[in-house]
Amino acid sequence: MMIRAILASVLVLAAGGVVSAAEKDVPVYELRTYYAAPGRLDDLNARFRDHTLELFDKHGLKSIGYWTPVDNTDNVLIYMLAFPSAETREKAWNSFRADPNWKEVREKTEANGRLVIAKKVARDRIISLTDGQARHGRKTQSVRFDGFKLHLLGVAAVRALEPVEARVGFRQDVQ
User: Distance between CA 54 and CA 67 in Å, rounded?
Assistant: First the structure.
């Protein structure tokens, strides 16, 4: 246990160098908003469910979630994708768009007209984590927590990493 504490201290002191080396491959997330043609939102959802999700997986487009507004008068579908880096995002989309299976699915599902009348991916919607380790949330309406997702404990000399999870409990747990 003492060795872990010492290694944790070393990691904190050396974190500046570790973080700057890893910044080259910062994960990015893409938030997309599609406006379905009138009466075609169910068809668009079916295309994602039956075809697109599998093709996304094939080409490295990792789905985070899919949403529709509660009051969806505009036939909106919102979804988020994750990528290891901006470069892999570009490669994944290019590969997906060139896939003959995607072209066939798109042609088949749009035989009766376009499913999507507008796509919006504003520049500010391709985002990266400000602090990938920070976590903030609520355990109940009145109890908030601040903590950390995961820390890697490492020894620079041997280049070994050991995952160590750090969690802050309820306030009364720390007092």
Answer: 18
List of residues 6+ apart from 64 with CB closer than 8 A: 29, 79, 80, 81, 82
* Tally of CB atoms within 10 A around 18: 13
Domain spans in the chain, listed from the N-terminal domain onward: 25-128, 131-175
Element (H, E) at 47: helix 41-47
Q: Which CATH number applies to 25-128?
A: 3.30.70.100
pLDDT tens-digit map of 139-157: 676 776 555 444 333 334 4
Q: Which residues contact 2 (CB under 8 A, 6 or more apart)?
A: none
- How confident is the model over 7-24, as pLDDT tens digits? 343 333 334 333 333 445
Output the six-digit token pair for 36: 């379905």
Q: Does position 6 have pLDDT exceeding 50, yes or no?
A: no
Q: Could you tell me the pTM of the whole model? A: 0.60
